[in-house]
DNA sequence: AGAATGACGCTGA
DNA sequence: TTCAGCGCCATTC
């Protein structure tokens, strides 16, 4: 309910790992929360990826907007206080079509991470 | 400490 | 295709 403000609080190692991985998603490419979790060896922790991105102090150079849900849409919810619409704008600006409901062609823009992933 | 809450994901109706 | 119901698990209340 209350929106915890991460500003000022040091990001934990989990946040750092999520951010560093998301930072290498190329322009106009998309990844899902579950995909990011999996690449970090954390299968089943998609929600935690969402939280890590939620803690990003905005504005940021990290392309957090390139992470969407597995259904191929932006999770639109008032609890995001507008970051969902910002995400839509940023994606459209990169050339990815997003409809009014937040749905987008995930298959066409899916990011194929180069292997091996080294950190 | 226990309950509630999600920027999730999968299954089944 | 949409939607409800669950399982999931760190964070919050």
Give your account of this protein's structure.
The chain is mainly alpha-helical and 119 residues long. The protein has helices at residues 13-22, 33-39, 46-54, 83-93, 106-109; strands spanning 31-32, 67-68. The protein is globular, with a radius of gyration of 14 Å. The relative contact order is 0.18. The chain binds a DNA duplex (13 and 13 nucleotides) through residues 1-2, 4, 14, 32-34, 37, 44-54, 64, 67-71, 74-77, 79-80, 83-84, 87.
Topology:
Blueprint: H1 13-22, E1 31-32, H2 33-39, H3 46-54, E2 67-68, H4 83-93, H5 106-109
Helix pairs in contact: 1-3, 2-3
The structure holds a DNA duplex (13 and 13 nucleotides).
CATH superfamily: Winged helix-like DNA-binding domain superfamily/Winged helix DNA-binding domain
H/E series: HEHHEHH
Number of helices: 5
Can you tell me the residue ranges where pLDDT is under 50 for at least 5 consecutive residues?
1-8
CATH top level label: Mainly Alpha
Structural class: mainly alpha
Q: Separation of termini?
A: 35 Å
State the CATH architecture.
Orthogonal Bundle
Spatial arrangement of strands, main beta sheet: 1-2
Question: Main attributes?
Answer:
single chain; 119 residues; mainly alpha; Arc Repressor Mutant, subunit A; two-stranded parallel sheet; DNA-binding
